[in-house]
Structure formats: C-alpha cells, structure tokens
TrEMBL record:
Family matches, as Gene3D superfamilies: Aldehyde Dehydrogenase, Chain A, domain 1, Aldehyde Dehydrogenase, Chain A, domain 2
EC number per UniProt: 1.2.1.97
Species this chain originates from: Lysinibacillus composti
One Pfam family per UniProt: Aldedh
Protein name per the record: 3-sulfolactaldehyde dehydrogenase
Amino acid sequence: MKTELLGMGMYIAGEWITKEETIPVLNPQDNSFITSVPAASAEDMLFAIEKAKEGAKIAAAMPVHQRISILNKAANYINENKEEYAITIAEEGSKTILQARAEVKRCIQTLQISAEEARRIQGETIPFDQREGSENRVGYYYRFPIGIIAAITPFNDPLNLVAHKVGPAIASGNAIIVKPATATPLSALLLAKAFEAAGLPPKVFSVITGHGGEIGDILITHPDIRMVSFTGGLETGENIAHKAGLKKISMELGSNSPVIVLKDADFEDAVESTVSGAFYAAGQNCLGVQRVYIERDIYDEFCSSFVARTENYQVGDKMLETTDMGPMISEKEAIRVETWVNEAVSKGAKILTGGKRQGAYYSPTVLVDVPEDCTIAQQEVFGPVVLLYAVDDFASAIEKSNAVNYGLQAGIFTRDIERAFEAIEKLNVGGIMINDSSDYRIDGMPFGGVKGSGLGREGVKFAIQEMTEPKVVNFKLNYKRTV
C-alpha cells in the first residue's frame, strides 16, 4: 500500500501530478513516516480551477444514467479494495482498524445512496393560473447544477466525509475540487483513484494536497467557485464565511454535544452508549458525547458505572482488532486537551479516571464538578474527555444542554414519551437521538446543526439540494384554455 501511494501525487483534472516540494504523511501512533504528498502552490490551485470550469460543463452534460453508473462503479471499486482503504484510514489517522473498516463500509453506502438520489433530482409543475390574468400560462421548475464546488474536509473521517461532498456533487452534475486535511490526504486520493477507475470524465474531480495557508484562500475566494462545503472548526468556518464572497456556503462546524439521562432510563444502555459516544475515535468526532446531565437520584450510581466501563476501554495499537481507542491525530492536539483538562481541575473540577497523556495518546477521561466557565465546558473538546453533571430536574437539564454556542445533535435516555417529545421541542439542535447518545448518524439523513455548529445540511439528498438551484420555466399559451 505504501509503495503504491508513494509518488502517486495529487489528482488534478484526471492527471496525477507530483511536485518537488512535498508534505510528509505521518502515523500519529508513533510518528513514523508513511509517504509524502505534493505541496501544491497557488498556481496549482488556479490551474485546477481553470480545468474545473471545463469539468463543470462536462458534468452538467452527463446524462443521469451515466452519473449513476460512475457512482456505483466507484462504490464497487472501493468494496473490492476495502482492506487497502481501511488500512490507509487507520494508518494516517486516529481510528482503529475496526473503526476504519466501518468508515469504508459507510463510504460505499454514501456513494450508492448518491447514485440512487441522482435519479430523484426532480422539480414540480406550478399552477400559474393561481394568479388572476395567468389562465393561459403553464410551467414547472427543475433543478440544475451550480458549477464548481470547493470541498474542504477534516482529518477525523478522511474518506466518508469526502464522499459526502463528492458523491452528491457528481450525482447533481457539478465539478468538485477537494482540499483534504493536511494530516490525512491519502484517503481522499484513494477516493479519486476509485472515480478514475469508474470512468469519471477528466476535469470533473480534483484532489489537491497542500497547506491551507498557501492554497485555501484562492479556493474559497475565487469567483468561479460557486459553493464552499466545509467541515471543520468554528473559528475556521467563520473565517471562510467572511472571505468567501457571494457564493453558497455549507458548513458543519462541530459541537459540544449534550446527553440527558433521566432516572427512568434503561440504565445499562445509557452507560454503554454514552461511553462509546464519548470515546469513539479518541473523541475526535463532531457528534461525540461531551456533556452528560444525569438526574440526581441516579447520579452516583451512573458515575460509578460510567467510570468502570471507561476503565475497561482498551487503549493501544490501533491496528489490533482488540483495541477500542488509539491516539489522537497529533501530540499537539493531545497537549491541547491536556491543557483544557488542567484548567478545569485548577478551577475545581475532579478527574474520576484518566487525565494522563503519553505522546499523542490521551487516556479516556471523566470529569465531574466542572465549572461552566471552563474552556472545556463551553468549547468543543474534540478529544477523549466527557463531563458528568447532576441535575435536579428535567427542565434544568434542558436549560444546561442549550447553554453553549453549539447545536449539532443531542441525546436523551427516558421511557417517558412525554419527556421525549418535550426534549424534541426544546433542545436547540439539528438532531435528537431518543434512547441513544448524540453519536448516531446514518448517511441518508439530513445532517447539520444550529448556532455555532454550522449552516445548511449534509446527507446525500440534502447536500444535492444545496448543490443545485431551481430554474422556473413558464409557457405563455396563445390559445385560451376552455372547458
């Protein structure tokens, strides 16, 4: 796998392009060298955009059956080489091999759903005669592709989150340029390889590797880019929104996800689900459980069980199938999490378990008594740390859940249907999981949040809506419609 990727280059308009200046791709587990990728220049990005202008015309002209065929062939190619894809995800990122295999499976499904949704990009007839004087008019609207889409993707799901932008773009007849995370570019390049094998016309799809400071602003500000689809942090998202100009923007900017556990909950299920939701992929998950609000009657028992389950979590070599959690994406990120935890402790928080760092590894950590003004209580930790709080009543749990500038998803555990529906109404989030943690998603559902969690929705069908525009067609008839 490493030999094959070495020297592959970046993928621009159907060509694999190498550069003298490169960026090393390292395994965060031990900082070992995997391979290197080109460090694109501003000129490379401008070249890619020029080619994508031609690609947008090609993509728009592709009949729907061709788009469907290409998407399904790409999905089949990945399925035939799924272990190579899984190993790549695990080696360059933070996921264990089992988690990486699950991501590959989801990527295949994302592309298959994209193929299915390509045939469902439909419009509607419009009754123009609803307006007096328009009795001799008939018409409809249909959806057309917007042109070139810029996709900027994160490290934590380096294959499937790219597919969530590329699949809908191709299904809807657009060209797309992907700038993957600098730390995890290989999975995106392998996705390009799948589409190349599937027969996607050149110039429709590019993957450009490089430093955001060198090529990012060109991609997001260029007037020929008609949409920016970004997944990443709030600060970067706000910066992109200020710079992008007059174009469509879709952003998923993370969260600080709450889960409410009421005393009538299925106790064991609530513990298991919230532990998994907190520490999956070393907590580097936009849906990860960060705050748990537990009714006081069961708080002590819940904390005890939660800690016991956390201490059974297997941390170690991410390539072993027995490992539950590997390293964070870098030692720098692990140090940041360590700093946030230490700040909380200095203000009175207590560590029930964890709180230890070794290189890029940060142990699964459970905090209690965390003051609400701490960084870790207000911001997205994006690491393996969870905060447990006791609450006196349901209303307090709702209020505290909403008391941050994020609103991606939330969870609630209860057997009371009335409480469940009240939470649905009052939690200010984009998705609510009943009797599950916040960390649940399927690739066909609308996905996104409110407040600082972003703009717009992903999920294939809903991304296609973002990537197309309605065009109205009206016929003025020369004869009078009579009975």
